[in-house]
Design a protein that fits this description.
binds NADP nicotinamide-adenine-dinucleotide phosphate, 303 residues, 8 helices, 8 strands, Rossmann fold, SDR family oxidoreductase, alpha/beta, SDR_fam
């Protein structure tokens, strides 16, 4: 009997849900995915910016792309839960989930959930959104989950500091003067990799894969809300940065390429598997982080 051939994977005709698509790497990726034929769901914190993004995409594809906007402030767990509920009502399938939104904060701010803000946006938001949407991703068959990490994870040399999850020490004197906010950012980007490792393990055998990537140093709006010094630093770094299209290249490839079908739990850079820091390689720590994240989001365990 002739063997049944499965159709090669491509993002054309697939539904891609993406956070942080109103600017920078996410916007460039959303545009390219739309050009390649994907329908999009954009998770944005501002209706105005969401609408502007839809307009830009529709202009690019001559109105051929279905683009939904879902509102969520990713610092706020109630807002994430409400958006997830709306997504589950409006989206019968999610083929690709991209956790891309991210930020850095030079000052220590606690969210109304009592979570330090960098940790809330960069780690707990992807954790909560993904786990709330996981059954829908599984129902969609061979779904893909992609999380934007960073080479900056290497700054977290001591790994996840589980006894300082609200980053009091990181942001206190003298650590804050020695780059505490940068280390905190690095810790959240390390958490993105460990989250991917454990998610991939939990998803084994389901057909859903989870990977993360480093976009490189990219010219975006990143770190523009942290005062003059941060803006000046970013202006200098711009000289060494890549354009957004290049920064989005690996994300688009992870969403669209058939070559990596079945690959899961990996960290990529420039469309190649890369080796993250030693702190990112422990399955035991990845498991511990998952349990802590469940506790911090008061979310039920995956069944
Ligand atoms: N740029 C780099 O060199 C670089 C390097 C490595 C990794 N990364 C990672 O790349 C990802 C994208 O960053 P980017 O460089 O493209 O920066 P960006 O231009 O500032 O874009 C960040 C995106 O995240 C969204 N966002 C931030 N806080 C949010 C919140 N509370 N709720 C909802 N959405 C929120 C922003 O929405 P608004 O448009 O409303 O602000 C924007 O769409 C981040 O995860 C970052 O850590 C960047």
């Amino acid at each position: 009997m002739e063997q049944l051939k499965t159709k090669p994977w491509s993002v054309s005709g697939k539904y891609v849900l993406i956070t942080g698509a109103t600017s920078g790497i996410g916007l460039a990726a959303a545009k390219e995915l739309a050009v390649r034929g994907a329908d999009l769901g954009i998770v944005a914190r501002s209706q105005v910016k969401g609408n502007e993004t839809v307009e830009q995409i529709q202009k690019l594809t001559g109105g051929q792309t279905k683009v939904d906007v879902f509102l969520a402030d990713l610092t706020d767990q109630l807002s994430i839960r409400s958006a997830a509920s709306e997504i589950l009502t409006r989206c019968p399938r999610i083929d690709v989930l991209v956790n891309n939104a991210g930020a850095m904060f030079v000052k220590r701010i606690l969210t109304r959930d009592g979570i330090e803000k960098t940790w809330a946006v960069n780690h707990l938001a992807p954790f909560l959104l993904t786990t709330l949407l996981l059954d829908r991703l599984k129902m969609s068959g061979q779904a893909r989950i992609i999380t934007t990490s960073s080479h900056g994870h290497k700054m977290a040399k001591t790994g996840i500091v589980f006894d300082d999850l609200t980053a009091e020490k990181r942001y206190s004197f003298p650590q804050v003067l020695l780059g505490g906010a940068n280390f905190r950012y690095g810790e959240t980007k390390l958490a993105n990799i460990l989250f991917t490792t454990e998610l991939a393990r939990l998803l084994e055998g389901t057909g859903v894969v989870a990977n993360c990537f480093d976009p490189g140093l990219v010219t975006t709006n990143f770190n523009q809300d942290n005062g003059l010094l941060a803006r000046m630093t970013m202006a200098v770094m711009k000289r060494f940065s890549r354009p957004v299209e290049k920064g989005a290249e690996t994300l688009v490839w992870l969403a669209d390429s058939n070559d990596i079908s079945g690959e899961s739990g990996k960290y990529y850079m420039d469309m190649k598997a890369a080796i993250p820091s030693a702190a990112a390689l422990s399955g035991e720590i990845a498991q511990k982080l998952w349990e802590v994240s469940e506790f911090q989001t008061q979310h039920l365990k995956l069944g």
